[in-house]
Amino acid sequence: MPGEAVAVVGASGSGKSTLLGLLAGLDIPSAGSVALDGRDLFSLDEDGRAALRSKLLGFVFQSFHLLPALNATENVMLPLELAGDRDAAAHAVALLERVGLGARLRHYPRTLSGGEQQRVALARAFVTRPKLLLADEPTGNLDPATGAAIIDLIFELNAERGTTLVLVTHDEMLARRCMRLIRLAGGRLEKN
Amino acid sequence: MLLRDWRAGELRILALALVVAVASVTSVGFFADRVRQSLTREAHQLLGADLAMIADHPWPQSVSDEIARRGLRLAESTGFTSMARAREQAQLVAVKAVSGGYPLRGKLRIAAGLNLTDAETDAVPQPGSIWIDERLALALALTVGDTLELGAIKLSVGAILTLEPDRGVSFFNIAPRLMMNLADVSATGLVQTGSRVWYQLLAAGPREAVEAFELWVTPRLGRGESLQSLSNARPEIRATFERAQKFVGLTSLLAVVLAAVAISLATRRYTQRHLDGCAVMRCAGASQRQLFGLFAGEFAALGALAGAAGCIAGYLVQFAIAGLVAELVAVPLPQPTLLPALQGFLIGLALLLGFALPPLLQLKHVPALRVIRRDLGPPRERALAAYGAGLTVIAALLVWQAGEARLGIIVLGGFGAAFVVFGGIAFGALHVLGGATRVAGLTWRYGLANLRRRAATNTVQVLALALGLTALLLLSFTRGDLLATWKAKIPADAPNRFIVNIQPEQRALLLEFFRDHGIALPQTYPMVRGRYVAVNGAPVEAQRFDAREQRLIEREFNLSYMDAIPGHNRIIAGRGFSTDDRVEGALSVEEGIARSLGWKLGDRLSWQVAGQTFSAPIVSVRKLDWDSMQVNFFVIATPGLLAGAATSYITSFHLPQAQAQFTNRLSQRFPNMTVVDMSAILRQAQSVLEQVIRAVQLVFLFAVGAGILVLYSALLATRDERVQEAAVMRALGASRSQVLAAQRAEFVALGLLAGLLAAAGATAIGFLIARQVFEFAPEVNHWVWLAGPLLGVACVAVNMVAGARAALNRPPLIALREV
């Protein structure tokens, strides 16, 4: 449902990240289909899926995956520029300020702490106002305090922008903050 | 393990780098070995005898008698240049007149006509007939049976001479060749006062007898006489060859240096990839020695295979080198020995030890604790210490190739300076480019930002490629510019013909001949052959000087005499001839020869002319403008010193294109005079230069190849990063073309930067050469600034294709999972 927050939980190797990747069209399943905003994802070619991702999706990864050659602002601008937005810089700066990094606009990832890097990643994920945000263990590489702050920020931004959130986590406490919980085991849906 | 590691890529680079380095050195080595064998093992063929004696005057009869008395076989030959005429055409020819029995070793080969099968012969041209080479046959449109005029006589063409064994390796063949019978020489009337003629006695026989004769004749050799035996045949050719081989050998080492960079980059990545595996093996109980032995064995096996492949490649390429300089090397060359292959193998081994071993040694220090704490790795050694052995190896290679420590150190310094200067400029440029974030377009901004992020690795890439390209551009564009500018510097009406062997009684007739043909009267200069014998009363000791100066001292100088120094000579020390000078006698010398022979203003030089000795002080030193094409003399005396000596005259003049037939008519009117066409000689010299440069360009291609390998090894080192970044971009919505465009932008910028640096380097070096060597202000060549960047981008094309494949051949999800 639009605006819904869904948690995907399961033991290690249960297929949580794989599911996320398939939902985003980052890999092709051997069988089955995925419909994204009414479109059959795998009837599109690679560039078609990329274009759809650009319009609809935002990502937050466990390892942040910021591009080391770009500073914070440029990392956040990236998805906007890929979509051809001419005001990418302004939007990026605004969102970085929103996540509390107004003083780190020109810093490169190597000079940012883990929490700051994840904030940049959050800003990058939300800057395109995606309909669907996919977060894969967003606090997996962070200490508990920082992780908690990041989770709060995710839910805040999610609520502000009305994004549908799919959150992969092994943290049961975090999962309970979501409206719906999906449990995977051995690649199969166990509980919804 | 070898196969698995081969697929990963680093070992491929390692192997290719070794192949390139070994091939570069062995291609030059094999060719040089063949030429050296031709000069050494085929020495008796080179001499046409077991022993050859050459003089600039006829040999005393006593020497010929001694050869016969000792039971040795004897042959004689005489050589000079002259004009040959046929069908109203005249051609400068190199004449060799031989006696029966020539050559005493090796065989002549002749054919009944052009392009007909040739065969060995034991005969020599009969009196009244000549054998001509293909060049002469084509130049004068001669066939067997035609008549040719030489001096005062007519001779019949008896055969086409296809092989003269003692012509051998000869780098400068100014004139086509003609062989005649010794008995016909006097009838030609060409051997006169002032003619430059060489006289040769050849001996062959049992080794002991030859050696005994050599012992007898050596202490009896006078000035202008020399002896060549099997061990020192054709020293002037050897010296030229050794110098050329040294130079080309040093240039081949550029590829070795760049290959060393590629090997160290590839091995570093190899060790990075094996850190985890080594940690696991340490946990399982493997000792340091076992670990090291495993990897060292893999590298040694690969090194041996790559070394062998490099030797084979070098062997094949040396055929190309031989083909490019075929006209200079006029005889079939023997097959090379295995020595260059051994040297190539040793170089490959040295590269492995110097540049692959230091990173490999780190693998045995990987702590087992790394399986739990992945941040742990082997201790980071200081790069300089680790590669100290490798740098020492490179320095030793350069000194060994140079043949002397001084030259080797100069070249090492040159390489080092080039690395530092180019590297510094590249590093700075990468930072400037990388900061150009306001450049429009995401892909270019991302590509340029990556340039700066990987500044150290990219600097190495740009440096490696730029060095190889600089050499190529220098030899392709700048060389052409230098020659063209030098030729253009010569005035259009500068003399383009020389006439030598003008007899005193012919001067007036010659000037009348010029007047009759409406050609501007040239200035004629007297020429007297004299031998330098003492300075300030002390006899000259030729052995104190280098080989080149020794030859200058041994041969006769062409002295001249005049009342005043010619206008086209510039006095840089001393003064012109004064009235007292003309009474007492004085000399003026050229600055270059003065420097070579240690002459100073005021020194009293003694000369022997036709058995008489005179001495006079140096009152001036002159600088000559050789480009003026005027007649120039190293030594000019006041008339009183030489006016009574046997004199011939020399002149130079400009012959307009429209009057090309003038030379033929002059040669018919004055058969003893030799007309030298300077433009033909310049064309010949340029042709020699072109051939040598093409061969050197081929060697430099190895350096470019090694530079491309450095690029590829750097790409490999960053492949994992690029794959992940491409996956992130695709996850964020980038299309495949956008991902490729960003990668391409980085590589294109690299290639452009390397190409521009190379163009700047070639231009700067060309500028230096023009100023320091040719002494003129060079013109800017705009094409080199286009060719350099284009070549640079072409070289990175390999990287672009490989990089694109790496970035896009895996689904983004898999790449994103690999952290």
Features:
heterodimer; A: 192 residues; alpha/beta; Rossmann fold; six-stranded mixed sheet; two-stranded antiparallel ribbon; B: 819 residues; alpha+beta; 4 domains; six-stranded mixed β-barrel; 26 helices; 55% helix
Question: Concise description?
Answer:
The complex is a heterodimer of chains A (192) and B (819). Chain A has 192 residues and is an alpha/beta fold.
**Which CATH architecture of chain A would you pick?**
3-Layer(aba) Sandwich
The helix-strand sequence of chain A is: EHEEHEHHHEHEHEE
Taken from the alpha-carbon principal axes, the silhouette of chain B is: elongated
Report the top-level CATH class of chain A. Alpha Beta
Round the mean pLDDT of chain B to the nearest integer and report it. Answer: 83
- Total number of domains of chain B: 4
CATH topology of chain A: Rossmann fold
Total strand segments of chain B: 22
Instruction: Give the percentage of residues in beta strands of chain A.
Output: 15-25%
Instruction: List how many beta strands of chain A DSSP finds.
Output: 8
Gyration radius of chain B, rounded:
33 Å
Classification by helices and strands of chain A:
alpha/beta
Helix content of chain A: 25-40%
Question: Could you characterize what this model shows?
Answer:
The complex is a heterodimer of chains A (192) and B (819). Chain A is of the alpha/beta class and 192 residues long. Chain A has one domain: Rossmann fold, CATH 3.40.50. Chain A contains 7 helices and 8 strands, in the order E-H-E-E-H-E-H-H-H-E-H-E-H-E-E. In chain A, strand 2 and strand 3 form a beta hairpin. In chain A, helix 3 runs parallel beside helix 5, helix 4 packs across helix 5 and helix 5 runs parallel beside helix 6. The model of chain A has no long low-confidence stretch (mean pLDDT 87). Chain B has 819 residues and is of the alpha+beta class. Chain B folds into 4 domains: 213 residues, no CATH class; 179 residues, no CATH class; 229 residues, no CATH class; 133 residues, no CATH class. Chain B is built from 26 helices and 22 strands. In chain B, strand 4 and strand 5 form a beta hairpin. In chain B, 43% of the residues are buried. The model of chain B has no long low-confidence stretch (mean pLDDT 83). Chains A and B meet through helix 1, helix 2 and helix 3 of A and helix 14, helix 23, helix 24 and helix 26 of B.
